[in-house]
Design brief:
4 copies of one chain form a homotetramer. The first copy, chain A, is an alpha/beta fold. Chain A contains 14 helices and 11 strands. In chain A, α1 packs across α12 and α9 runs parallel beside α11. The longest helix of chain A has 21 residues. Chain A starts with 24 loop residues before the first strand and ends with a helix. Chains A and B meet through α1, α9, β10, α12 and α13 of A and α1, α9, β10, α12 and α13 of B. β10 of chain C pairs antiparallel with β10 of chain D. The complex binds nicotinamide-adenine-dinucleotide (NAD) (4 copies) and sodium ion (2 copies). Chains A, B, C, D: InterPro entries: Myo-inos-1-P_Synthase, Myo-inos-1-P_Synthase_GAPDH, NAD(P)-bd_dom_sf.
Chain lengths: 425, 425, 425, 425
């Protein structure tokens, strides 16, 4: 067989030809050799092969049973990265830390080897002699070749690369003309790598999700190129402490309590821990984490927040929150939460969810920010809703409605990949 | 001035003649000298007088701003209890423990004295020689006299008395005829005190809410007498750990995680702590607390639960929960929560909310269980919804819709504002 | 090679001929196929082979560097159990749960096979037709044969079998004559299995440690047989919550604070969790756990304590404690602790410590309860000291002094096993 | 009667002429209007008057019953501060926050007024035109006048003023000559205020304790002036999280476990919270807090530590610690602690303890750092011992031995204050 990942019979969590009639879908990961990406790849292979239930996936629940989306066995994975550790080796090392089940990694070994063959060198700002415009075209070409190679109706690009320091503002972020000129200047390097990746997604006509807090698609001149062309969603996966906060904060509001302070400390090791030990890199993360809290509770909540790199904890992130609220007649209410989980195990299923849901959006011709996907992000694009229950309601409504439209739309043409590539031009 | 509680100018949280046009409303508390009741009385007086903001009240938030309900200054409090500690003394002792602010208790002293004059002896099963039917009529007469004395358009009875042991089942609970006969037999004592109180509410045509897990209105023959006559809501106030659980559990479900165990321990002292130290009394409480969890997560969640009497903690209840869930590829997620608050300070504002909302229900002629009030209870009557966000949505929808109906309905017939004002002199 | 476990070169944690001159030592485990025992066996093999450092072992620290004790490579393991799961299979299943490192279990596989060959059927009360006296002799013979087979200078019996329900008191527990008679009556079954095991240790002249809260050696007629014959220590390994309590309680006392309540909840699954789910079995455990607290803080501390069986947690025990103390001018101090660890991983190194230290005691002819070993137990025999720091000081002092005596004593005769068996008669 | 505080009959915690034969003792507080100082003053008055038991005092326990020390009713309080809030007002405001019992503050009101009369303006670096030498002499004169006014045998100066930023190093800190010259130069301001206060203690011949992490007495040229003249002890009161850490860390060591990380977060409001919100001021505090941990566990423990200013928590400090250790065969042990208490209520009794114990030291002619008082400090002077249990043992031994010497020494001359003033020159 010539395809990369189609090793499985149809399973519960697998394809359902009757409903999703647009064939296999590409998931192109920026940071494809990282912890989240490797976990997503192992998971897609395991779920696609019916070796594990789809626990942890938002799209696998009963609420979305009737929404037409590609099955887990219909996802084909490729991506960019700037390191060269082979995917199977990375997966094994994640098994050695106790995060991934060793048997599962062994069982999907062949699939990982095939996926590894789909990975291409990413873009490093300042490295090499290509102009940033050339870099965008190189990355886009990788994605288009991947699409053609596997005859994919849709490709969804998800950025799960290392969190970048926030770039200083510059004119090229606001003036389309200036940006266009800078992109073709081999001496200029005005955009961060995350923006180059976002532009490559746009150029290749792929749907796009930003799982990191990096600037990428939030740069106005980048964002303008995306509007009207692709569906996109972001930003910064909502997985642990922030998820919990957007679940809990609305409770205080509904009960008329006044939250006075919400302090938090995050401990983690692993690659992300090391990256965030850099005070520059952590800044964007911290800003992203507190935004929702202030939106939900007001700006006068005192909310000190820390992320500490604690190498011996590995990928297990432990977060302690201390909430102090005022209740009836000034009475004090105190809530402490301690959340502890393998961070990448929380993130990976959401990456698969995004691939499925953005395929659906793409299949119905949706473009622009998809506010209903805000439930997946700390900093939801196109939406001010942070309350998790409200976001869940919005997601279900959107999925039902969009699914209905997709079901009644014509199936993808057999030469769809060709057509789409044309459309992406 | 000769009225009981009208000591205040209209405040934000106070009356709004333009919208609520049915005058003052009675709040009749079963267990009126208890910790929750005393706190509710102090709070109603303080809020009515504009001495404290309505923090902790569900009905005071912006979502219900336009719903016509009696102001806090329009609540007149009376009730039954079986002890005789004067309300002002009880309030002072709650201030001494650090729960109630001492200045506030001092400031509302006169109001407490007036309220104390509205309290009447309750019913103790087995004590005295009255038949249970006579007891029902005596209690109902107390409520009717209170209503007439203050020319109240509506009275809401709220049971905040001590949690009873669950009674053994008996034929009189199912057969109306048998019950009717037993009620008139001075030698028989078939109903628990909570049912006598519920029947008195029904007899007096008052709305009724059950803030305890006691059997009262859940006895089929009692419940049948309420249907079609009064609006009612229950059961067992959802204030601390259980509130938190019904906020958190839906998060796991929405994210496709599988909760395996949810263990809990509650520590508290005070009157409620002492009552629940009795293994018989605690049984109904524990059953009530776990019901929602199983409804939300399924019956195979392992959920050991304890309530310990720890006298030195007084009314501060501290609850520790340990949740263990399975996520992506079998990965473990652990969440611990520690909640700590003065229990009565959480309960009292909800009692006031119930008085306001059941007045509204009564004003629109609603009878039977009001499912939309399920948000206030561990064990919601007339509803299977336990998820707090969904309950909040349902409450807001019901309040908006019922408020609309109330606003367009004629003002109370039997007690025109003229008559009522005269009577209040 | 004819010996069971001597697979390793001398290591740091290994033998040191210059100091310990009495050769290899037997560790005979009651409950030898259980979780603690299997972990101890894997650990002894791994440490003996220099495959793992002696982390978690009390005797491996710098404070005891100069005390002559058998090296980990000088321990030979055997034991009794009533199940038949082969030790290598049990170890593998403990690796599958993530508790034991899989590579380590694989690396010591041959040693486990050899150890498995040293295991013999234990005693089950009421099963079979042997009198209890015959059972004692059978078990003692197993131990003596083990000693001869391996030419061991000393054998230490450690009871790590399932916690028993506490037996009802009876005359045979107090009257030596009555017990002797009952032991020879095939129809009588007066002693619990833990006592039969203790008597077998005594009969075989082995040192003995009781790691469980079972009645065994605390029965007066059993204990009298041990006095003057063997060194022994107990009872109920102090590993998690109780360890923490005896570390923390003295802090409050030293600072003049008055602890008012100390509430605790333990969650665990695994074999021990299932055993303790039995309300009978858990009673002895709970009593044992609270004894130290009351000894340290007085009897008026309110100390509710729970152990819940939560299967999905496996052998990871999580304990939450909530301490409330009164400080200066009646001020409140609150401390919460959450302890989480693989229970057997805490217990197993102490079992090895006890083997080493009781060998030392035996080598110096010590008999009776050894109070200085109280640091290992929730309920220390021969001592009222529960404060962990004081116990540690006492252990160090005893080990230094006894070590000195052992070093100056004559080495064990080459035919020592013969001599000792004589002594055991 | 003409004395300031002798309002009480002898109580248990009061004077015992038979043992302490040197009369009343002065406690001179630097920062005398602060939270800790005010609490200490209220406490000394309450304990001296027998209005409260000596809960929270290290010296009141049974272990020190026979050590001759001044009774709480023999302490006379004075001090320096740079604010002017009257002590009774400060005490009332601490009662309003719920920290001090309001009745107690009312009961000792007269004593607070008398104490307030003993307070003098402190030294503010850079303010005024006096040289630093003049400032030292002014402050010393205040202390000497206080001693004479009350005919005190001993005065103990305790620095409980605001934590200072750490000063940059300079030559005057090392060269006695240079310092002497700078002190007399009105244009120079080389020493921080804490050092001026320490020099005033030395000049006045008073014993001295440093309850803050400020540089004061640690400056070599300052310290050299103290040696051989006065007994002194420091530094930075060990009251909450750090106390707990030095209790817990030795447990891990004794059990052979290897602590890998120990992360901490402190939340507090109040005056100290505001001070420590300054990143400069907090630096010395953080350094001081982590020193003990590294001493106990080695330098490779990863120990991120935060102090956050959370105003709504007031003086209640809440500290969360997360400890991760490696046990047997590499197994993970996790311990979390949450400590919550009114910080000043922990500190104040220790200030009284230091007054009593340094009086005793002074009474036996002790000079230099008193290592046995290290138990009270995060950063013990003259000692490397941080383990709390070992420190407690050392304190008890020193107190017993010094007490014995004091008891056998001649009682203080009636004109002792005169003599001492001479000695202080
Ligand atoms: N729960 C979660 O794990 C979670 C939640 C929200 C956001 N995130 C974000 O997801 C991202 C990935 O996390 P991770 O734990 O996998 O981190 P990781 O360090 O394991 O992986 C990041 C990968 O990105 C690659 N990379 C770096 N620069 C690149 C570039 N210019 N182009 C292509 N690849 C590049 C790295 O080589 C690495 O393989 C982080 O930004 C993190 O903040 C994770
Ligand atoms: N957060 C909360 O406080 C909360 C939440 C849910 C439910 N509840 C329930 O509210 C109830 C009241 O709690 P509390 O803390 O005020 O307890 P409490 O013990 O302070 O008060 C109970 C009062 O009921 C009175 N009483 C007892 N039997 C009576 C009878 N037959 N008729 C009339 N009065 C009677 C008692 O005399 C007492 O004054 C309890 O059942 C409790 O379980 C409280
Ligand atoms: N941290 C700890 O793990 C810890 C601490 C203190 C005490 N303990 C005690 O150690 C004991 C063992 O714990 P575990 O986790 O290994 O339990 P487990 O259930 O895994 O093992 C107990 C073993 O004892 C065997 N057994 C039962 N009855 C027996 C008999 N009559 N004779 C011989 N063997 C018998 C069982 O077959 C089983 O193999 C328990 O009593 C437990 O309470 C453990
Ligand atoms: N548990 C504890 O409370 C604890 C533990 C260890 C150390 N400490 C230390 O004790 C000190 C006092 O804490 P607090 O809570 O009372 O703080 P606070 O802010 O309430 O009081 C400090 C007082 O010092 C005064 N002051 C400032 N500069 C001065 C100067 N140059 N001379 C004289 N007085 C001066 C201030 O005016 C204020 O009245 C702090 O340094 C704190 O770090 C407290
Ligand atoms: Na947004
Ligand atoms: Na004992």
């Amino acid at each position: 067989m010539d395809t990369a990942l189609s090793t499985s019979p149809a399973t519960d969590a697998g394809s359902d030809g009757a409903r999703w009639n647009r064939g296999r879908v590409g998931l192109w990961l920026i940071g494809a050799r990282g912890s989240v990406a490797t976990t997503a790849a192992v998971g897609a292979l395991a779920l696609g092969a019916g070796r594990a239930p789809a626990t942890g996936c938002t799209t696998a629940g009963p609420a979305m049973r009737d929404v037409p989306m590609p099955g887990f066995d219909q996802l084909v994975i490729g991506g960019h990265d700037v390191t060269t550790t082979p995917l199977p080796a990375r997966a094994r090392s994640l098994a050695d830390t106790g995060m991934l089940p060793a048997e599962l990694v062994a069982a999907v070994h062949d699939g990982l080897v095939r996926t590894d063959a789909e990975l291409r060198p990413g873009y490093v700002a300042g490295a090499g002699r290509e102009s940033q415009g050339e870099a965008v075209r190189r990355l886009a070409a990788d994605i288009l070749a991947f699409r053609e190679r596997h005859l994919l109706a849709h490709v969804v690009v998800v950025d799960v690369s290392s969190t970048e320091p926030l770039p200083a503002d510059r004119l090229e972020f606001h003036d389309d003309e200036l940006l266009a000129r800078a992109l073709e200047d081999p001496a200029a390097s005005v955009l961060p790598a995350s923006a180059i990746a976002a532009l490559a997604a746009i150029e290749s006509g792929s749907a796009y999700a930003c799982f990191t807090p990096s600037a990428g698609m939030t740069i106005p001149t980048v964002r303008r190129r995306a509007e009207g062309r692709i569906p996109f969603a972001g930003q910064d996966g909502k997985t642990g402490e922030t998820l919990l906060r957007t679940v809990l904060a609305p409770m205080f509001t509904a009960r008329g309590m006044r939250v006075r302070s919400w302090a938090g400390t995050n401990l983690l090791g692993g690659g992300d821990g090391a990256t965030l030990a850099d005070p520059e890199a952590v800044r964007s993360k911290l800003a992203s984490k507190n935004r929702g809290l202030n939106r939900l509770l007001g700006d006068d909540v005192v909310a000190p927040l820390h992320i500490d790199n604690v190498p011996d904890l590995g990928d297990v992130k432990t977060a302690w929150d201390h909430v102090s609220a005022e209740g009836f007649l000034g009475s004090r209410i105190t809530l402490q939460t301690t959340w502890s989980a393998h961070d990448s195990m929380l993130a990976a299923p959401l990456v698969l969810d995004l691939a499925r849901l953005l395929s659906l959006a793409d299949a119905t011709g949706t473009t622009g920010a998809v506010p209903a996907l805000g439930v997946f992000f700390k900093d939801p694009w196109g939406s001010d809703v942070h309350a998790f229950a409200d976001q869940t309601t919005a997601l279900h409504a959107w999925a039902a409605e969009t699914g209905m439209r997709a079901a009644t739309a014509a199936p993808a043409e057999s030469a769809s990949s060709e057509l789409r590539i044309g459309a992406a031009r």
